[in-house]
Structure formats: C-alpha cells, structure tokens
Design brief:
about 100 residues, mainly beta, seven-stranded mixed beta barrel
Length: about 100
C-alpha cells in the first residue's frame, strides 16, 4: 500500500466549485504523486466511511499550501482551517483522504 501526503493546507472556500471538485496547487499535487492536471478519486472526509467520487484539479492559480473546497464539503470536515491530504493508490480510483491537522 503506497500512501503519499501533503503538508498542512489551509482551507479556502470557493462557491463556484461543486462538491465533486478539490483544487490544489501543482506543487502540492506533486507531493501526492499526481502528474496529470485532473485526476478522478474517491474522497473520504476525515475517517468517515462516506465517500464521494470527485476530481482533484491542479491549478497554478491556487496558492501553494492551500486547498479549495465547496462550502458543503467543508461542513463534512468539522475543522477550523487546516487539513492534510493523503492519497492511497489502488486499482480503480485512488483514495483521497482529507483529514484535519
């Protein structure tokens, strides 16, 4: 099992995003081993068993050290302002865990 992680990321709210979009800076994506601009993943918020199919989108416009989420996604986290992303490779879609720091 190969799991990669980012450093601490500050959460930014972006109402233009859907619940199925997670935006990060390409340098933070590199920490996760992401090479493509967009990747389909299964997202898990904290250690909740509920998961959603989503896309991780890497944009240079996203400030390094931040993650942009829809307000509904942020409500699932029960966290103030910082998270760490963990990516676990698997056969189908990689699993992306968003956990508070």
């Amino acid at each position: 099992m190969n799991i990669k992680q980012t450093g601490e990321l500050k959460i930014l709210t972006d109402q233009r995003l859907t619940e199925k979009e997670v935006v990060i800076n390409p340098n933070d994506g590199f920490d996760l081993g992401l090479l493509m601009t967009e990747v389909n993943v299964e997202v898990y918020f904290e250690d909740n068993s509920e998961q959603i199919q989503a896309r991780v989108i890497q944009k240079n416009e996203c400030k390094l050290g931040t993650v942009e989420l829809n307000p509904k996604s942020i409500q699932k986290l029960e966290v103030n302002s910082k998270v760490r992303l963990y990516l676990e490779e698997q056969d189908d879609y990689p699993k992306l865990f968003i956990r508070p720091v």
